[in-house]
Amino acid sequence: MTEATQRVCVGIVTGPQGVHGAVRIKSFTEVPEDIARYGPLADEAGRRCFELQVCGAAKGVLIARLSGVHDRNQAEALRGLHLYLPRSALPQTEAEEYYHADLIGLEAVLGDGTPVGRVCAIHDFGAGDTLELARPGAQPVMVPFTRVVVPVVELAKGLLVLDPPPGLLDDGEP
Prior knowledge:
Blueprint: E1 7-17, E2 22-27, E3 41-42, E4 49-50, E5 52-58, E6 61-66, H1 72-77, E7 82-86, H2 100-103, E8 107-110, E9 115-124, E10 129-135, E11 138-144, E12 152-154, E13 159-162
Parallel strand pairs: 8-13
Antiparallel strand pairs: 1-2, 1-7, 2-6, 3-4, 5-6, 8-9, 9-10, 10-11, 12-13
């Protein structure tokens, strides 16, 4: 496991809230308020650490205070800041439950071992998780992350097995 995968992005600062240094944070944790539960958060480089105190919520974001941020200008400067936790700070997953960070980078293969691509992103458009697979020499493809389409996930081997319905992996050319 590389250093980059030992940390998990758990939120992003979307902007300031008020004039006293509070920020709006889009939390990526299952329970949004849990972003403050697992310890200090770090920036992407791991150079700056923040204690986070949730103050409230508004329209899909949390209102929070970050240590060391005391005014609107400081809060504005953090817009777009991704907040990370060490992977080890997060609870262990249950069987067949995965952190998105654990799936990114996995090789996707068909049941017979034919390579399809690599998981480059995970999206949730409201109907459950969808894996985006980067494919060499082809357009990326979106695959529903369901037990039917992805029956096997082997984190230790760095791969997942697909059983796609007909046409799912087609490039859309007649």
